[in-house]
Amino acid sequence: MASVKLVEKHEASTMRATFKKCLGLLLISGLLLFLFCAWRPGTSSGVDLRTRQRGQIQKLLKGKIQDIIGVYPDIAYHIKDDVACLLAQNTCMCRADEETFNLPFSNLLFPHVWAHNIDLAFLESHPDPSGVKRHRAQEYSSFQKRSYNPADVLIVAEANSPLQYPTQGVEVRPLKTILIPGLGLKEETGSNHTVSLTATLGTFDVAATVDRVSVKGGGEKHMILSSPLLTSLNRQLQFVTYTNTLFHPKTADTVQFATDVHQSFFTIKVGHGIIPRLYNTGNPREYNISALVTIATKTFLRYDKLKDLIDSIRQYYPTVTIVIADDNEHPQPVTGPHIDHYIMPFGKGWFAGRNLAVSQVTTKYVLWVDDDFIFTANTKVEKMVDILEKTTLDLVGGAVREVTGYTATYRHTISVEEGGEEGDCLHVRNGYHHVVAGFPNCVVADAVINFFLGRTDKVQQAGFNPRLARRGHLEFFIDALGSLHVGSCSDVIVNHASKIILPWSKTDSHKAYEKFRYSSSGADDNVYKEDFYFKNRFKCMTSQ
Ligand SMILES: *[C@@H]1O[C@H](CO)[C@@H](O)[C@H](O)[C@H]1NC(C)=O
Ligand SMILES: *[C@@H]1O[C@H](CO)[C@@H](O)[C@H](O)[C@H]1NC(C)=O
Predict the structure, then answer these.
(1) How far apart are the C-alpha atoms of 119 and 538, rounded to whole Å?
(2) Whole-angstrom Cα distance, residue 195 to residue 226?
(3) Which pLDDT score is estimated for 531?
(4) Which of 18, 341, 370, 398 suits a disulfide with 492, CB 3.0-4.6 Å?
């Protein structure tokens, strides 16, 4: 903006006289600019993607923090145990609740916390425990390198710095140029004022020049600005540009801004913007469930249950699309309008089926149901759409009513405590974080029941690990921790067809289903242990 103004002023005073000259100059400079832009040194040679920049500046930052911590060595302090113990120490312990009393039903009222040593359980049955441990450490280290972002590095602003600079919010698109806002120097006027700028992933320049200011290193990673006049230098600092030169879709450059005696650091985020994924859902004034929601389910050996589910859905939502993932050995046709029936290889399993079903959804929201659920007048999908439309939640669970009348919401909180080299500790507890304002029947939690409505793109992003074939539910919410904002409403209820079936009324397919679902071979068990031990790098899980 400022540079445009300058050009305008300049043109107003000398416009007619120099019009032709200017035009010629413009053409020439345009050509030069074109040549300069077309010829980019270094772009043809490869960029080393193997390690991320952790250069001079990062070392300097580390040293500075050490200096600050090291001050006042001879002043004594007294640790407050009750507060200090709240701080994470990177040494989580695998501890269960101590058994205090043992009355009948006490576990229902005060659920007992159990602890499970995942590393022991997994490693003791593994043929090469030290090998798998080493492999996990290697994989973890390269994961950390990939997910490292210089913008996460701690920077402390030192006291009494005369330097003014932006602390956050500066962003540049890959290989583009921006004006750095807010740079300035506030010191007593002297005979020579000098500042310097240093970057690692880009170069500096000035978009305009100011008289009596010397600029050295324009177009380079290190630029020095000096002037005998402080005001001129500050004027010049308003025109400093930063150009990202090393392509990365999402990273940050730590810039050093310094005088002879003072140093400051700030980060410039480098990255593409987030491309939105919007859904055109028609009239936004009323919720058209058929246009907004797809119902997804996975079926295995329970066509009778599936038919009841579909019939119950059709009573309330006759045109909503139902996606069915089916991994039966002998698939039967499931027909009807607005039904997409996907046949999978036999026995591919629970999460693979969820993944497939969810991947085929084209509406804004996906409603997950089990194949033995029944819709009733209490299954108001509109309510779930409403809360997702009006809040920042990504997924909202409902309630499932058993034949006995018992209604479950399965609300859990999940937290991960750091545990050093052996892995971290996963803690799962009954409960929720807080009530959602404006929705008195809804709360925020980390994991909810098997009946939920989610933003399709967010659920797809989190994904269902297809290795988990027989069971799995919590695993999805653990993978999604930190990326999904999860809620739970107790007033949207679906019925559950009986789980407890009297033996004489069991059909052959029931028996086969139970055999398949509840039998767990040793190899199958190991997949679950490995999932926690290796994939999620846990050493311990505690739960209620
Ligand atoms: C001001 O000081 C800087 C270094 O401190 C030096 O590079 C520069 O030439 C000096 N400028 C003048 C005008 O003396
Ligand atoms: C609701 O959406 C469906 C599917 O997109 C569409 O066929 C139907 O006409 C819509 N109904 C209304 C009332 O807009």
Answers:
(1) 7
(2) 6
(3) 87
(4) 398
> Separation of 376 CA from ligand 2 center, angstroms?
22
With 0-12 CB in 10 A as exposed, 13-18 as middle and 19+ as buried, what is 229?
A: middle
CA atoms within 13 A on the CB side of 435: 6
Domains of the chain with bracketed CATH:
152-271 (2.60.40), 289-543 (3.90.550.10)
Nearest one of 87, 61, 69 to 154, comparing CA atoms: 61
Q: Residue 532 and residue 310: Cα distance in Å, rounded?
A: 35
For residue 102, the model assigns a pLDDT of 58
Name the token pair of 100: 């205090």
3-state SS assignment for residue 233: helix
Q: Which residues of the chain have pLDDT under 70?
A: 1-45, 47-54, 99-110, 470-471, 498-524
Phi then psi for residue 79, to 5 deg, are -75, 130
Atom of ligand 2 nearest to the CA of 288: 1
Q: Are 401 and 496 in contact (CB under 8 A)?
A: yes
CA distance 531 to 474: 12
- Ligand 1 centre from 194 Cα, in Å? 7
Task: Identify the residue whose C-alpha is closest to ligand 1 atom 5.
Answer: 194
Instruction: Give the span between the Cα atoms of 21 and 14, in whole angstroms.
Output: 11
- Cα(331)–Cα(147) distance, integer angstroms: 43
The b-or-e profile of 149-183 (16+ CB within 10 A means b, else e) is ebbebeeeeeeebebebeeeebebebeeebbbeeb
Residue 60: per-residue pLDDT: 82
Going through 210-332 in order, the beta strands assigned E by DSSP cover: 214-216, 222-227, 240-244, 250-258, 263-271, 293-299, 321-326
Q: Return the pLDDT at 83.
A: 87
**Tens-digit pLDDT profile for residues 261-307:** 999 999 999 999 999 989 888 777 889 999 999 999 999 888 999 99
Residues 166, 169: Cα–Cα separation, whole Å: 7
Query: Rounded to the nearest whole angstrom, what is the distance from the C-alpha of residue 255 to the centroid of ligand 1?
Result: 22
The residue to which tokens 């996907």 are assigned? 342
Instruction: Give dist(CA 346, CA 353) in Å, integer.
Output: 11
Closest CA to 342 of 313, 306, 310, 299: 299
Nearest CA to ligand 2 atom 4: 291
The residues near 28 (Cβ < 8 Å, ≥ 6 apart) are none
Tokens 């911590």 sit on residue: 69
Q: Which of 287, 341, 343 is nearest to 317 (CA)?
A: 287
The rounded distance, in Å, linking the Cα atoms of 158 and 258 is 12
pLDDT of residue 515: 54
Q: How much is the pLDDT for 499?
A: 65
Task: Write down the pLDDT at residue 17.
Answer: 44
Q: Which amino acid is at 533?
A: Y
